[in-house]
């Protein structure tokens, strides 16, 4: 019921197939010795193509053994005829091999061309999409400009249609002052009016900014109102911070005031 795992597994300890030592008899050439240079993974195990080559080698050896000896003119002629037939057979076999190789190469070339064509089609599609997108942007920009020009021309036509007879009209002051969008309240800059040029919104008052003006204001007040004006009681505002007996503000109070100001 228990299994053990050893340090040396079959897959790790597997080596090339065992080849025992051998002794060749004199005068014999075993066929198996032609495979002595092949090893596992390099020629072994033999596939279909290797078996066909082995069969052809066997046929060629049997054909060499069946050749007639060159001891008479008839045997020589027969030997030449058999050699020519074998040569034609070899050439036919070679042509068949070349045709097979060419078919395999053609298949590889077809796959490569198909892959190249697919890549080129993807690249062309990407270029076409970019080109179409650029044309769409240009078209939208052109349509936007046409719509803007159309609105501008419509406004011009509407303004021109109001006075299609081309008569000179007098200025209607009451209508202009009743309409807050007229030139009286909102003049256009294209006419030459720039409201912000040289504007100074600081108001200077002689009576408030100078001591002499304050004295004149004081003299202009009536005597009955002086009692109510000059006898005003102003209460100092209570400090928002905690003040000590010596009149100083604590550091924590200053921090609270700063935080309250920042929060506000």
Please outline what is shown here.
This is Cilia- and flagella-associated protein 91. The protein has 264 residues and is mostly helical.
Description:
- InterPro entries: CFAP91 (IPR026720), CFAP91_dom (IPR032840).
- This is Cilia- and flagella-associated protein 91.
- The protein has a two-stranded parallel sheet with strand order 1-2.
- The two termini are 83 Å apart.
- It has helices spanning 10-13, 48-65, 73-162, 173-178, 206-209, 211-220, 223-230, 251-263; strands at residues 39-40, 43-44.
- It is mainly alpha-helical.
- It has a domain at 50-154.
- The protein is 58% helix and 2% strand.
Determine the number of helices (DSSP H or I, runs of at least 4 residues): 8
Q: Can you give the helix content as a percent range?
A: 55-70%
Strand content: under 5%
**Biggest β-sheet description:** 2 strands, parallel
- Average pLDDT, to the nearest integer? 83
Secondary structural class: mainly alpha
Residue stretches low in confidence (pLDDT < 50, at least 5 long) are none
The tally of strands reads 2
**Gap from first CA to last CA:** 83 Å
Protein name: Cilia- and flagella-associated protein 91
Family: Belongs to the CFAP91 family.
Domain CFAP91: 4-156
Subcellular location: Cytoplasm, Cytoskeleton, Cilium axoneme
